[in-house]
Amino acid sequence: MTTSLRCTCGSDSGWQLLELAPGLPASTCRDCGGSLLALDDYRRWRDRGATLPEMSLAGDRVDLPTASAAEGARHCPRCTRLMQRLRIGAPVDFRVDRCGPCQQVWLDRGEWQALQRAGLATRLLEVLSDGWQRQLQADDARARREVALRERHGDDRMQELARMRAWLDEQPQRDELLALLRAGW
Ligand SMILES: [Zn+2]
Protein backbone atom coordinates (compact mmCIF):
# COMPACT_ATOMS: atom_id res chain seq x y z
CA MET A 1 0.00 0.00 0.00
CA THR A 2 2.73 2.44 0.92
CA THR A 3 5.11 1.61 -1.92
CA SER A 4 3.38 3.88 -4.44
CA LEU A 5 3.74 6.96 -2.26
CA ARG A 6 6.30 9.54 -3.22
CA CYS A 7 7.53 11.73 -0.40
CA THR A 8 7.72 15.46 -0.98
CA CYS A 9 11.24 15.47 0.47
CA GLY A 10 12.37 13.61 -2.64
CA SER A 11 13.75 10.66 -0.70
CA ASP A 12 13.39 7.10 -1.90
CA SER A 13 14.15 5.66 1.53
CA GLY A 14 10.65 4.27 1.78
CA TRP A 15 7.82 4.41 4.25
CA GLN A 16 7.00 3.01 7.63
CA LEU A 17 3.50 2.46 8.93
CA LEU A 18 3.67 4.08 12.36
CA GLU A 19 0.99 5.01 14.84
CA LEU A 20 0.65 8.71 15.61
CA ALA A 21 -1.47 7.64 18.57
CA PRO A 22 -2.77 4.25 19.65
CA GLY A 23 -5.02 3.06 16.81
CA LEU A 24 -4.09 5.88 14.45
CA PRO A 25 -1.80 4.64 11.68
CA ALA A 26 0.07 6.94 9.28
CA SER A 27 2.67 6.38 6.59
CA THR A 28 5.88 7.99 7.75
CA CYS A 29 8.82 8.79 5.47
CA ARG A 30 11.95 7.04 6.72
CA ASP A 31 14.02 10.01 5.64
CA CYS A 32 12.25 13.26 6.60
CA GLY A 33 9.96 11.83 9.28
CA GLY A 34 6.90 13.49 7.81
CA SER A 35 3.64 11.55 7.94
CA LEU A 36 0.79 11.04 5.53
CA LEU A 37 -2.44 10.59 7.42
CA ALA A 38 -5.61 9.28 5.77
CA LEU A 39 -8.61 11.26 7.01
CA ASP A 40 -10.66 8.03 6.95
CA ASP A 41 -8.22 6.50 9.45
CA TYR A 42 -8.42 9.69 11.50
CA ARG A 43 -12.24 9.59 11.54
CA ARG A 44 -12.21 5.94 12.60
CA TRP A 45 -9.77 6.78 15.41
CA ARG A 46 -12.01 9.67 16.50
CA ASP A 47 -15.11 7.49 16.40
CA ARG A 48 -13.41 4.92 18.62
CA GLY A 49 -12.71 7.54 21.27
CA ALA A 50 -9.42 9.10 20.12
CA THR A 51 -6.91 7.78 22.61
CA LEU A 52 -3.88 10.00 22.98
CA PRO A 53 -0.75 8.93 24.82
CA GLU A 54 0.17 10.93 27.89
CA MET A 55 2.71 13.51 26.91
CA SER A 56 4.85 15.84 28.88
CA LEU A 57 3.47 19.34 28.82
CA ALA A 58 6.60 20.75 30.41
CA GLY A 59 7.28 24.05 28.72
CA ASP A 60 5.21 25.58 25.97
CA ARG A 61 7.96 25.31 23.44
CA VAL A 62 6.93 23.58 20.28
CA ASP A 63 9.74 22.11 18.22
CA LEU A 64 8.89 22.50 14.60
CA PRO A 65 11.23 22.30 11.65
CA THR A 66 12.03 25.90 10.79
CA ALA A 67 11.59 25.20 7.10
CA SER A 68 7.99 24.19 7.65
CA ALA A 69 6.45 27.65 7.66
CA ALA A 70 8.52 29.03 4.81
CA GLU A 71 8.04 26.23 2.32
CA GLY A 72 5.53 26.56 -0.47
CA ALA A 73 2.76 24.19 -1.33
CA ARG A 74 3.52 20.45 -1.40
CA HIS A 75 2.55 17.83 -3.88
CA CYS A 76 0.38 15.02 -2.57
CA PRO A 77 2.55 11.92 -2.06
CA ARG A 78 -0.28 9.82 -3.48
CA CYS A 79 -1.60 11.68 -6.51
CA THR A 80 1.08 14.43 -6.91
CA ARG A 81 -1.59 17.17 -7.09
CA LEU A 82 -0.74 20.37 -5.23
CA MET A 83 -2.03 20.14 -1.68
CA GLN A 84 -3.93 22.87 0.11
CA ARG A 85 -1.99 24.62 2.88
CA LEU A 86 -4.24 25.16 5.87
CA ARG A 87 -3.41 27.18 8.95
CA ILE A 88 -3.67 25.85 12.45
CA GLY A 89 -3.83 29.22 14.18
CA ALA A 90 -3.24 30.01 17.84
CA PRO A 91 -1.53 28.97 20.03
CA VAL A 92 0.80 27.49 17.45
CA ASP A 93 0.67 28.89 13.97
CA PHE A 94 1.91 26.49 11.38
CA ARG A 95 0.33 24.92 8.36
CA VAL A 96 -0.64 21.42 7.42
CA ASP A 97 -1.23 20.28 3.88
CA ARG A 98 -4.37 18.53 2.74
CA CYS A 99 -5.17 16.74 -0.50
CA GLY A 100 -8.92 17.04 -0.93
CA PRO A 101 -9.32 14.42 -3.65
CA CYS A 102 -7.26 11.79 -1.74
CA GLN A 103 -8.54 12.89 1.71
CA GLN A 104 -5.00 12.84 3.07
CA VAL A 105 -3.17 15.22 5.37
CA TRP A 106 0.56 15.73 5.36
CA LEU A 107 2.23 16.45 8.69
CA ASP A 108 5.88 17.45 8.87
CA ARG A 109 7.96 15.86 11.59
CA GLY A 110 6.89 17.29 14.94
CA GLU A 111 3.60 18.75 13.73
CA TRP A 112 1.42 15.99 15.19
CA GLN A 113 3.08 16.52 18.56
CA ALA A 114 2.56 20.27 18.19
CA LEU A 115 -1.14 19.66 17.51
CA GLN A 116 -1.29 17.48 20.58
CA ARG A 117 0.33 20.13 22.79
CA ALA A 118 -2.08 22.71 21.44
CA GLY A 119 -4.99 20.42 22.33
CA LEU A 120 -5.95 20.20 18.66
CA ALA A 121 -4.98 16.61 17.86
CA THR A 122 -8.56 15.47 18.41
CA ARG A 123 -9.96 18.52 16.59
CA LEU A 124 -8.13 18.18 13.29
CA LEU A 125 -11.32 17.98 11.20
CA GLU A 126 -12.51 21.20 12.80
CA VAL A 127 -9.16 22.88 12.08
CA LEU A 128 -9.36 21.82 8.43
CA SER A 129 -12.92 23.11 8.06
CA ASP A 130 -13.85 26.20 6.07
CA GLY A 131 -15.33 27.74 9.21
CA TRP A 132 -12.05 27.48 11.14
CA GLN A 133 -10.03 28.83 8.23
CA ARG A 134 -12.46 31.74 7.72
CA GLN A 135 -12.25 32.57 11.43
CA LEU A 136 -8.44 32.76 11.21
CA GLN A 137 -8.72 35.14 8.27
CA ALA A 138 -11.25 37.26 10.12
CA ASP A 139 -8.96 37.37 13.18
CA ASP A 140 -6.07 38.50 10.97
CA ALA A 141 -8.18 41.20 9.34
CA ARG A 142 -9.28 42.46 12.78
CA ALA A 143 -5.66 42.53 14.02
CA ARG A 144 -4.52 44.45 10.91
CA ARG A 145 -7.35 46.96 11.37
CA GLU A 146 -6.42 47.41 15.02
CA VAL A 147 -2.80 48.15 14.04
CA ALA A 148 -3.92 50.64 11.38
CA LEU A 149 -6.26 52.43 13.82
CA ARG A 150 -3.55 52.65 16.46
CA GLU A 151 -1.16 54.11 13.90
CA ARG A 152 -3.74 56.69 12.86
CA HIS A 153 -5.05 57.72 16.27
CA GLY A 154 -2.35 56.68 18.71
CA ASP A 155 -2.48 54.12 21.53
CA ASP A 156 -3.85 56.52 24.15
CA ARG A 157 -6.87 57.59 22.12
CA MET A 158 -7.67 54.03 21.13
CA GLN A 159 -7.43 52.95 24.74
CA GLU A 160 -9.74 55.76 25.82
CA LEU A 161 -12.13 54.87 23.04
CA ALA A 162 -12.16 51.23 24.15
CA ARG A 163 -12.89 52.36 27.72
CA MET A 164 -15.80 54.53 26.53
CA ARG A 165 -17.19 51.72 24.44
CA ALA A 166 -17.02 49.30 27.34
CA TRP A 167 -18.80 51.82 29.55
CA LEU A 168 -21.48 52.53 26.93
CA ASP A 169 -22.06 48.81 26.43
CA GLU A 170 -22.91 48.52 30.11
CA GLN A 171 -25.59 51.22 29.98
CA PRO A 172 -29.24 50.16 29.65
CA GLN A 173 -29.92 53.24 27.46
CA ARG A 174 -26.77 52.85 25.44
CA ASP A 175 -28.21 54.07 22.11
CA GLU A 176 -29.89 57.07 23.69
CA LEU A 177 -26.64 58.11 25.39
CA LEU A 178 -24.73 57.66 22.16
CA ALA A 179 -27.27 59.80 20.32
CA LEU A 180 -26.93 62.50 22.99
CA LEU A 181 -23.17 62.40 22.64
CA ARG A 182 -23.36 62.79 18.88
CA ALA A 183 -25.91 65.58 19.04
CA GLY A 184 -23.91 67.45 21.69
CA TRP A 185 -27.19 67.50 23.65
ZN1 LIG B 1 -3.69 13.33 -3.47
Beta-strand segment tally: 6
**Number of contiguous helices:** 7
Overall residue-averaged pLDDT value: 88
Gyration radius over CA? 23 Å
Low-confidence stretches: none
Approximately how much beta-strand content do the residues carry?
Answer: 15-25%
| Terminal-residue CA separation | 77 Å
Q: What spatial order of strands do you see in the largest sheet?
A: 1-2-3-6-5-4
| Main sheet record | 6 strands, antiparallel
Bound molecules: zinc ion
In quaternary terms, these chains amount to single chain
Share of residues in helices: 40-55%
**Overall number of domains:** 2
Task: Please render the helix and strand layout as text.
Blueprint: E1 15-21, E2 24-29, E3 35-38, H1 39-47, H2 67-70, E4 84-87, E5 95-99, E6 104-107, H3 111-117, H4 124-128, H5 130-153, H6 155-170, H7 174-183
Antiparallel strand pairs: 1-2, 2-3, 3-6, 4-5, 5-6
Helix pairs in contact: 5-6
The structure holds zinc ion.
